[in-house]
Structures are given as C-alpha cells and as structure tokens.
Amino acid sequence: MIEWLTLGxxxxxxxxxxxxxxxxxxxxxxxxxxxxxxGRHKKFSxxxxxxxxxxxxxxxxxxxxxxxxxxxxxxxxxxxxxIPVLVVSASGLIRPGVFLLMTFLLCCGVSLLxxxxxxxxxxxxxxxxxxxxxxGVSPVLxxxxxxxxxxxxxxxxxxxxxxxxxxxxTGTDIFDNIHRMMRSALVPFLISxxxxxxxxxxxxxxxxxxxxxxxxxxxxxxxxAALIPAVVIMVLSALRVRVKAAMTAxxxxxxxxxxxxxxxxxxxxxxxxxSGFHAADAQVGAMMxxxxxxxxxxxxxxxxxxxxxxGIFRKTxxxxxxxxxxxxxxxxxxPFAATLATxxxxxxxxxxxxxxxxxxxxxxxxxxxxxxxxxxxxxxxxVVIAALVPWSIAGSVPLTAAGAPTLSMLAACYLYLLPxxxxxxxxxxxxxx
Length: 433
Prior knowledge:
The protein is mainly α. It is built from 23 helices and no strands. The chain is globular. The two termini are 37 Å apart.
C-alpha cells in the first residue's frame, strides 16, 4: 500500500507542475526526496540511499557526456552553415502535389542527421509549415507530417538522445539497435509515405513560398563545403565509429568552416560552445538559433534525476508490485503489448520522453529474454508514444515550434502505425509459438 501511495504522490507532483506550467525538474527533485523518504521507511540508511542514487547516475554518465557533445555539435552546425545549406537544398524539392509527402520525408532526413525532434521542427518544420500555409494545405495535416518526420530521426539517429539513452539503459550497441529499428519501421514508414502521398494530392498551389536562399544568404555563405560536417558524421556512423568520436570529428570539421567560410570570430565561436548559435538577423534567428551545452542542461537534469531513481527502485523494491502487474499483463497478452501499455501510462505521467523511457525500461526489463529485444520494444513504443500525449513536451514543443495545432497529433500517422504494426506482429508470433 505504501508503494502505491508513494508513486501516487509522485504522479501528483508531476501533474501539479503541468497545471502550474512549472519546470518538470521541480517535480523530479521532489520525487527524489519522496523516494529517499520511502527508502528510510524501508530501514535503509541515508548513506545507503545516497549510494543507490549515485549508482543510478553513474550508469548514465556516458550519455551525459554525449549530451554535451550534441549541444556543441548542433551549435557549430548552425554557425558553419551546415543546417542552413541542408534546409535550403531540401526545401527546393517541395511541390504542391507532393507537399505532405515531401514534408514527411524532409523532416525524416533532417532529424536523422541532427538527431533532434525539437531542432528539426524548429528548422525544417518551420519551413514546411510556412510553405504549407502559402499553398493552402491544412495546418493539421502539415503538422502531422512534421511530427511524424521529426520523430523518425529522433528514434533512430546515431546522435539521437533517446536512441543513446535507450542503448545505455539496456546495455546494447546503438548501431545494432538502429539496424533493428530500420527493419521494424520499414512497413510503417512505407504506409506513412502512401498516406501522406494520397492526402497531398488534394493540396492546391497558391501564394508565394519564401525565398530561403535569399533569407539565409543574409546570414550565411551558402557553399557546398558547409555540408562537410554532416558528411563526416554520416560516413563515420556508417563505419560504426563510436558516436562520441564521430561527433568530435564532425565538430572539428565544422570549426574551420565557422572561422573561414562564415567569418565567425574565434572568441564568438568559443562562446557558442556554451550558449549556442545566435543569428544577427532576427528572421533567420527565429529558425536557426539554438544549440550549445546550455541547451542540453534541462534534458541532462531530467536524465540525472530520473536515473538516480533507478538504484533506489531496484534496492528498495518500490516498483516490484507495478512490475508484477506488467508481467501479468505480458503473460495474458504479449511482452510488447505490456510494454506498449506501460509506455502509454509512463508517457502520460512523465510529461517528457526521457523520464518515460527510464520508467518503461525499469518496469519492463524482465519481459523480453534478450536485452536487444528490450531496446527495440522501447524504441517502438515509448519513444514515439510520448509524442502523442497532448500535455507532454515531447510532442507539444515540436508542434509549437512549427506553429502547428495540437490536433496535428491525430495526423501523425507514422507514430501510430509503428507501435500498431509491432503489436500485431507480437500477437501473431505468440499465436504461432
């Protein structure tokens, strides 16, 4: 009974932060205090509980270092002109008849390169939403295509925080995970392309689309050489070079481009390591500002606090009853069905993707026989389900960045098709076993 009361109070704290529009870190910090008090109730000393919490943080220390590298990488890609050149080149492919399909595919491509749903929505998503508005395309459909696309890469990019976190939590290799994710996503991806292709046929041309080359040309030298940092990380990832080494090499490739192609002063470049890129032109800045270590502090704080729970949960048995309920559901249905149901609950409670991943991994770690299967189940459930919860920042922030309505979640067909495809497959496998 005390376990469910403790978890209920934690959920209430998260809900209160949501209602008051307060940072979720406040609720997570209060949750840590709550779980420490529960540990004392179970007769553990403060020293033991501190070690439990620190052990949890130590288990994700590599991912925290990677988060910092991602912050620097995304800042330098902006300053070097890499992202602007990618966006300008890709936007030229958009045509009225295939607008929704190209919006989906372009957001897939940008998110696959950058590994961030937020950043992809704030760049390519904004571009597509602007063009869609000029063409008279429904903002709900445009937003759905954007949300589907940005989470394609958020799920399976080698520099995605969610993919790296899942690999770290499950003790698996991220490149092997990506290979399995691509296979499981193939059919949902193709069906999504068909859906957006058919819906796009109803689009009508009208109005003027923005001249992105002229817009970004006010701030950047749009030269093909700016793509070198993206090529570096793509090649090194294909060669299965360790993610941190690949990102470091890409950052190093961006430095001379910043200094000599974009004429960024060296002191300004050093400031970007922490504070990120800030364009002098306000209109460009609305789409390109961001990156830097500071931009990763919130997600790092969420992961730190959330991971500190794991050691406490494991040693105190706080989640044991909830885990037994999940295992019972898996026995009656299938392991993936139980993981999917758990991910829906954790996503609604956590209000963010990182904590939902951590909680789902903790509750479902005994369901599959292999840790590789656990990683795939997490990627095919909670990573995308989190974006379908209206009050979660996972989906609301990308849609807000792109200026799309919340109803767009209903049109994010890839985010539905992927877990449903896996769910159907899990029942078929169980029936044939």
